[in-house]
User: Which sequence fits this backbone?
């Protein structure tokens, strides 16, 4: 195994540190080795994947809604111009 030379600082609460140290000792590992193994074995859960998919759908829906709102505002602005022109013609006669 390669010698560990790079450091990663991780802030935890005192209670979290105590739990990690206790689990490392129970496993017969140093705290650093325990943390390395825990990080290496971490896999995103199905919930995380589902959440990411939901976020992706939300972003796409937001983009579509934004485009629809822009189209509606453009239509209203053009309608207001037509109405103003008709009222101008009416007032001129």
Assistant:
């Amino acid at each position: 195994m390669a010698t560990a030379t790079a450091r990663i600082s991780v802030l935890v609460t005192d209670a979290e540190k105590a739990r990690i140290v206790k689990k490392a000792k129970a496993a017969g590992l140093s705290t650093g080795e325990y943390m390395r193994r825990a990080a290496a074995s971490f896999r995103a859960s199905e919930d995380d994947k589902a959440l990411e998919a939901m976020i992706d759908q939300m972003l796409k829906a937001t983009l579509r809604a934004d485009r629809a709102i822009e189209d509606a505002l453009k239509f209203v602005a053009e309608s207001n111009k037509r109405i103003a022109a008709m009222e101008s013609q009416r007032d001129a006669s």
In short: DSSP finds three helices and no strands in the chain. The mean pLDDT is 92. The first helix runs from residue 14 to 26.
